[in-house]
Design a protein that fits this description.
Structural class: alpha/beta
Distance between the termini: 12 Å
Number of helices: 12
CATH architecture of the largest domain: Alpha-Beta Complex
Radius of gyration: 20 Å
Length: about 350
C-alpha cells in the first residue's frame, strides 16, 4: 500500500516521501481502516523534525493522526466496527496518511452523516478537542466572552464555531487580515489582527479595549509561546485560561513558566488533553498522563454530531492535496500560510 513516510529527520518538504509498505494487521481491540482522506497536523511537522518529545520515533515511519474511511478488518474485541464509515485517530497518533490505517477502537467513532469524507477527515481532532476544552473544562456559557488564539487554524476555526453556537461573544486572534475574514465568516464577533514587526499589536491591550477592561471569561490558547503572557493579562477575574496548544513552545510545551500571574489575576489555568483512553498504562499515569474515558468521548461526539445535523458547525477545509503534495503543504502550515485544515485525499 502507499503511505507518506518520514525518511529522515528534517523539514517536511525535504524528508517526506510516498513509499510502498506492507499493511499492518489489527490486533486485539484494534481496527484497520481503508482510508478515504486524512488530515495534516502541526504535530506532523515536529515528527518530521524529530522534536516531538511526547512520542519519539526514529525514521522511517508513516505520519498522520486523524482520518476518515471504512473499516475493512478488525481484531478480537472490535468486531462491531467492521464495514462502518468512521473517523479515527491512528494507533499512537501515527500512520494515518496511508491507504490502510490501524487504529485502536477507543479512538474510532462513526463519521457524522452530514459530512463528506474530506470534511469528516477534518472533524475529529479539532472539534473533539475544542468541545472538551470549551465546555467540560472551560465551562463556557451563553453570554461569556471567548478569546481564541490561532483562530484561523484547524482547532481555532472549530473553537470559533462552537463558541458562537453556544451564544458566547467570540474574539478571534489571528496573524493577518485574510485570516480575520475567515473567522468573521465563521461567526467571530471581533477579530484582533496581531500583525508583526512595526505593525504588531498587543493582544492583551486589544482584548481589554474591546471588553471595557473585563477581559475574556474563557481563553482558548492554541499557540502557547509568546502569547501566554498577554493571554493571562486579559483573562477575566475568575476566568479560565485553557492550555490547549503549544505550537510556539519549546519542547512542545514541556518547559515551565512562572504562574504567579494567575494569582494576581484571580483566574484559573486549566489543562486540556483531547484523548479518550480506558485502559491507561500505569507508567503513563505515574508520569502524569490522565485522559478522559471513551464514555466521555461518546458524549462529546454525540453533542457534536447533533450540531452538525443542525447546521451549526462545519469543518473548515482550507485546502485538499495529494500525498505527493503533503510535504509542501506542511511547509505552508509551518510558515503560517494556511487556514483551517489541510486534507490529504487518499481514495
Amino acid at each position: 500500500m502507499r503511505a507518506l513516510q518520514v525518511t529522515r529527520h528534517g523539514e517536511p518538504e525535504d524528508v517526506l516521501a510516498v513509499v510502498d509498505v506492507e499493511p499492518e494487521r489489527p490486533g486485539p481491540g484494534e481496527v484497520r481502516i481503508r482510508a478515504a482522506a486524512a488530515a495534516l497536523n502541526h504535530n506532523d511537522i515536529a515528527r518530521c523534525r524529530g522534536t516531538l518529545v511526547s512520542v519519539a520515533k526514529d525514521p522511517p515511519f508513516t505520519i498522520g493522526m486523524d482520518l476518515c474511511g471504512t473499516v475493512d478488518a478488525v481484531g478480537p474485541g472490535a468486531e462491531e466496527w467492521l464495514g462502518r464509515r468512521v473517523v479515527a485517530i491512528a494507533k499512537d497518533a501515527l500512520g494515518g496518511i496511508a491507504e490502510q490505517v490501524v487504529a485502536p477502537a477507543a479512538g474510532v467513532f462513526d463519521a457524522p452523516a452530514g459530512l463528506d469524507d474530506v470534511q469528516a477527515a477534518a472533524f475529529l481532532i479539532p472539534f473533539h478537542t475544542t468541545h472538551l476544552a470549551l465546555f467540560r473544562r472551560g465551562g463556557l456559557a451563553d453570554g461569556d466572552t471567548l478569546l481564541v488564539t490561532a483562530a484561523a487554524s484547524g482547532l481555532g476555526t472549530a473553537a470559533v464555531q462552537l463558541g458562537s453556537a453556544a451564544g458566547a461573544r467570540v474574539i478571534a486572534a489571528v496573524g493577518s487580515a485574510d485570516k480575520a475574514e475567515v473567522c468573521t465568516q465563521l461567526g467571530a464577533d471581533d477579530v484582533v489582527v496581531l500583525g508583526a514587526g512595526d505593525e504588531a499589536v498587543d493582544l492583551a491591550d486589544s482584548v481589554l479595549d474591546l471588553t471595557a477592561d473585563h477581559g475574556a471569561d474563557v481563553v482558548c490558547d492554541l499557540v502557547g509561546g509568546d502569547l501566554v503572557a498577554p493571554s493571562w493579562r486579559c483573562t477575566a477575574r475568575e476566568g479560565r485560561y485553557l492550555a490547549v496548544g503549544f505550537t510556539d513552545d519549546d519542547q512542545n510545551g514541556m518547559t515551565g513558566r512562572p504562574i504567579r500571574m494567575a494569582s494576581i489575576g484571580n483566574f484559573s489555568i486549566v489543562g486540556v488533553l483531547g484523548a479518550w483512553v480506558d485502559d491507561l498504562d500505569p507508567g503513563m499515569r505515574r508520569f502524569g498522563f490522565n485522559p478522559f474515558t471513551r464514555a466521555d468521548g461518546d458524549e462529546v461526539h454525540a453533542a457534536l454530531c447533533q450540531l452538525v445535523a443542525d447546521g451549526r458547525i462545519t469543518p473548515h477545509v482550507g485546502r485538499v492535496v495529494t500525498m505527493d503534495e503533503a510535504g509542501a503543504a506542511l511547509a505552508d502550515h509551518r510558515d503560517r500560510r494556511s487556514t483551517g485544515r489541510t486534507i490529504v485525499q487518499i481514495a
